[in-house]
Amino acid sequence: xxxxxxxxxxxxxxxxxxxxxxxxxxxxxxxxxxxxxxxxxxxxxxxxxxxxxxxxxxxxxxxxxxxxxxxxxxxxxxxxxxxxxxxxxxxxxxxxxxxxxxxxxxxxxxxxxxxxxxxxxxxxxxxxxxxxxxxxxxxxxxxxxxxxxxxxxxxxxxxxxxxxxxxxxxxxxxxxxxxxxxxxxxxxxxxxxxxxxxxxxxxxxxxxxxxxxxxxxxxxxxxxxxxxxxxxxxxxxxxxxxxxxxxxxxxxxxxxxxxxxxxxxxxxxxxxxxxxxxxxxxxxxxxxxxxxxxxxxxxxxxxxxxxxxxxxxxxxxxxxxxxxxxxxxxxxxxxxxxxxxxxxxxxxxxxxxxxxxxxxxxxxxx
Length: 366
Ligand SMILES: NC(=O)c1ccc[n+]([C@@H]2O[C@H](COP(=O)([O-])OP(=O)(O)OC[C@H]3O[C@@H](n4cnc5c(N)ncnc54)[C@H](O)[C@@H]3O)[C@@H](O)[C@H]2O)c1
Ligand SMILES: [Zn+2]
Prior knowledge:
Blueprint: E1 4-8, E2 15-20, H1 27-33, E3 41-47, H2 51-64, E4 68-74, H3 83-95, E5 103-108, H4 110-122, E6 128-133, H5 138-141, E7 146-151, E8 154-161, E9 166-170, H6 179-196, H7 198-206, H8 208-212, H9 216-236, H10 251-260, H11 268-285, H12 293-303, H13 316-323, E10 336-341, E11 344-348, H14 353-365
Parallel strand pairs: 2-9, 3-4, 3-5, 5-6, 6-9
Antiparallel strand pairs: 1-2, 7-8, 10-11
Helix pairs in contact: 3-4, 6-7, 6-9, 6-11, 10-11, 10-13, 11-12, 11-14
This protein binds nicotinamide-adenine-dinucleotide (NAD) and zinc ion.
The site of zinc ion has 5 residues, from α11.
């Protein structure tokens, strides 16, 4: 199968996203295509779940092609996006003898991508970086150049914009993913449809079974279309001055649920799935969206085994308090990305808190 290629247009920082079945086996050739040539040293960052599955064949292939390769395996999970693990990876990079011409490969999900990307952004003021995502959710995190680690006081507070030289997406790697992670990834895929492409949502509904079974042709198309929505928005607004906020559909509610569950009970995809339903309800109640937008939003999310109901026992007041810490809040006034229709959203400022509370209380009381 030929890879599907999508270009993220960012002038001299433009890069390709290559998507296809078995693409990891072509890593050496694809690196050369973007000018990362044999002889250079490569440093692969991955986690303890991904390493036993995909690391050693990748290392052998790259060494055979003439690269010098070193690697570092971090613990799996959000807690690795920390200053301590950042320092450990930095130390390993220095000890491996990396220099300005070296390239760093992030082999894993969004955690590895965000952490390794931040190492690449800051090692000797920035070295080349290639994203090799192995989760479906990472179709979102690997595009756009946002890289970050967490501070004990908040998520992604320490970070940078650092665009990769390439994204290399092997759809075969998704088959080892736990189903709960597959569902979480589909939450972001669906989000990309709900933001800007009604036909994409229809296509997701029509092919939900094949997609859930991870048929490679369908999954590759879903990733390509999801990445295309994100890439178009990022190209128009690389450093999040305006339009990029639209990618936050469902995220203001979702981040509050994640924070209140200590990033444990609900994963990111599950939290934003419920968040997108609440956003649709809010939009209908405000008369911004036609009736039926909520129903269809919830239906497509359920097809991908995602939760759509209020996560008990969260208290609406607590949720609202956390929501107001969101970056979109200006002068204490809540702003939310809300749907006008399926495939069309807008940033609505100065939302009435009483309305949000009312909707949340109804959900809570159900
Ligand atoms: N930078 C961005 O723009 C952006 C956007 C969205 C999310 N994110 C970040 O992404 C992170 C979440 O990413 P994620 O959901 O990919 O989480 P993750 O990286 O923690 O991966 C989820 C789990 O799946 C395992 N795993 C990964 N690939 C596997 C495979 N092929 N087979 C078996 N197991 C595998 C991992 O070890 C982990 O346990 C969060 O930290 C979030 O902040 C960043
Ligand atoms: Zn997200």
